[in-house]
Amino acid sequence: MSTPVLRPARSDDAANLAALGMLVWLHTYSSTGLRRSLADYVLARFTRAAKTVLLADSQRHIVVAEQNGHLLGYATLHWQHPCPAQPASRNELETLYVHPLFAGQGIGYRLLQYCQQQCAPRGGLWLSVWQYNHRALAFYQRQGLVKIGEYDFMLDGEAHRNWLLA
């Protein structure tokens, strides 16, 4: 089996980005099952059209990990988007998603390393993680990121506590 290749996302990746994003998001956040607010959020955010817009945004950079033409993971950087708890951290890692069947194979590590290298000369990297996403929190802490604050992600009027890491 070959090693996954990292490359900048292209416009023809939009459908795969949407599908993988939906898969990972649901796998992570529907831990107690599905309800209307989760379904509505996913069906609005993870579409080919939404990813096409994201790919065209000059303030964002998406890198994909693929193997033999199959998308295994991706990361989205938002340039010059300061962290609310630490404004010196200037670039947000908006998403780092790895297909659940390929988790634990170093793909997330490689994507994070790439993103950290891209952000180092631009003011550093920060991200947010749902407080109950224990696997992601442990991963980021193993990579040396530390909690610098908290914020609430609002979904259908309900607050979901996220940790800010840098």
CA-based gyration radius? 15 Å
Instruction: Spell the H/E element sequence.
Output: EHHHEEEHEHEE
Strand content: 25-35%
Distance between the termini: 34 Å
Helix/strand/pairing category: alpha+beta
Could you tell me the number of beta strands?
Answer: 7
The poorly predicted ranges are none
Treating each run of at least 4 consecutive H or I residues as one helix, how many helices?
5
Strands side by side in the biggest sheet: 1-2-3-4-5-7-6
How confident overall, as mean pLDDT? 95
The biggest beta sheet reads:
7 strands, mixed
Helix proportion range: 25-40%
Overall outline: globular
Main attributes of the structure:
31% strand, single chain, 5 helices, alpha+beta, globular, 166 residues
